[in-house]
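Appendix B: complex inputs.
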Amino acid sequence: MTSPVVTVSDRSATAPSGASGSTPRLRTPRRRHSPGRPRRSVLLTVLTGLVLLYSLVPLVWLAISATKTQEGLSRSFGLWFDSDFALWENISETFTYNDGVFTRWLLNTLLYVVLGAGGATFLAVLGGYALAKFDFPGRRAVFAVVIGAVAVPGTALAVPTFLMFSEMGLTNTPWAVIIPSLISPFGLYLMWVFASEAIPTELMEAARIDGAGEVRTFFRVALPLLAPGIVTVLLFTMVATWNNYFLPLVMLKDPDWYPLTLGLNSWNAQAATAGGEAVFNLVVTGSLITILPLIAAFLLLQKYWQSGLAAGSVKE
Amino acid sequence: MTTLQEPVAAEPRPAPPPTRRDRRSWTGWGFLGPFVAVFALVFLAPIAYSVYLSLFRDQLIGGNTFVGLDNYTQALQDDRFWAAIGRVSLFLAVQVPIMLGIALLVALALDSGRLYGRDFFRISIFLPYAVPAVVATLMWGFMYGTRFGLVGDINGALGVSLPDPLSPDLVLASIGNIVTWEFVGYNMLIFYAALRVIPHSLYEAAQIDGAGQIRVITAIKLPAIRGALVIATIFSIIGSFQLFNEPSILQPLAPNALTTDYTPNFYTYSLSFNGQQHNYSATVAIVMGLITMVIAYVVQLRGMRKGV
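Resulting structure:
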């Protein structure tokens, strides 16, 4: 009954899975046993370091730029601080500018994430469990249709969805953003792979023999076993919803319903409009505030989502 | 919608262990039902509606009339549409191999166990994935600026004049750089996760046979993660053909280089929301969807047959 989650964490010595306090003690002997442990290479580390720099420099630029005033942005070198340290002013101005519309966007984004990503994860977990653990008519067709649908361009869906939703009176309401966010084909796929490996069928059989109904079996037996997979899917649907731009762009006219992404872009664009005030320092600071929650979520939950992803990784 | 019926990469386990024949029942639908219902509302219904729209034309005189395949004929002869496809094809041919190549090399480096600070590398290179495309594009857009961006800083500091990344000649490469930055870490992680589940016994066997690092990579690692490579390629192709966010957000910075028909997706968006040509827009989107599916399908067939 070795679930792949365990297999993976066994081998990755530095990322022990699970909260079991005994893991560190087990690690040392296992490391000694691993045959021919390769020697660390400075050259390889330096070469990979180039990709690391590429990944981190823009984020460093963003963090440094958030400390600058509008004038400071243009007069100082991008990767170093300006004489004016304006981070706190920028943050407070970001939240108060234009009657605090940024706070409104932040709350909208949270609403879309909680209902959209939460709902998408719930549907994906239910569906993935069904695909992995039940045999039913039409099961194979579902995968084909879902994967096929991923290839359909966003606009092929956005235009007719917009027209449909506008007939139903849903455009320019939060529902227009939330309802399409409820479907995550990648989440369904990940949950399917994960559930088929993480839930022993014997355990379900045992629960049924003990008289548990299907719903009870799902909540009491399956759900706890699915936890790392659920965290993984939740994080990826969260990213998708938090970062969504195209869908709200099409569906929403009223800035009061904008998510952060759309709001930031409108601040950026207002400099180009006649008589519009350039607020690049707020765009930069707002951008930083926008990405921090997701980065924090990934960092805090990394051992869970990485084990979930490893089990869900495609293999032959 | 049946083009990709061969599940990409191994379908997760042949079938649920059909413990007993009579287990085959409708129970599973109770769990899958909610997903399928919403899926039908937000995917299938719009696709069907799109096909319906593409068969009509809204004319000033005569109103909404059925025109059969006329819109499709128009799309196939539309130079702006083909120019947009040409751009994303070029983008695809250059950006996707670079991005996946870097991602694969980093994944192999991480998996080799030869890096100092492996976990720091893995998580840091992945982080850009958590950055919204809007923020990534705004950020790179600022940095690209020759007047007060990083490019301008370098020009000033070194007394050189680097070419403007937002000029018509370079803007496609500049967009490629943004997309690469956003997704290198994500693809790296997919590859890395696939590498981690290769049974250790294979490496031990290879070691006994005296295989070197390179040989282990070509004979064991790459074949083992072929499924992951194919699926990453397919998703990258789909992503390239759907390119929209980056060019549309950069557009105010480079209005001459980035026209509203720069990519097929941008073109359909403009047709629909600036030009009110919903029917023609739906047609263009369908043609693009079909092209995407055909290419994804071909890649999948080749990838599954011949390996990487």
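Chain B is about 65% helix and 5% strand.
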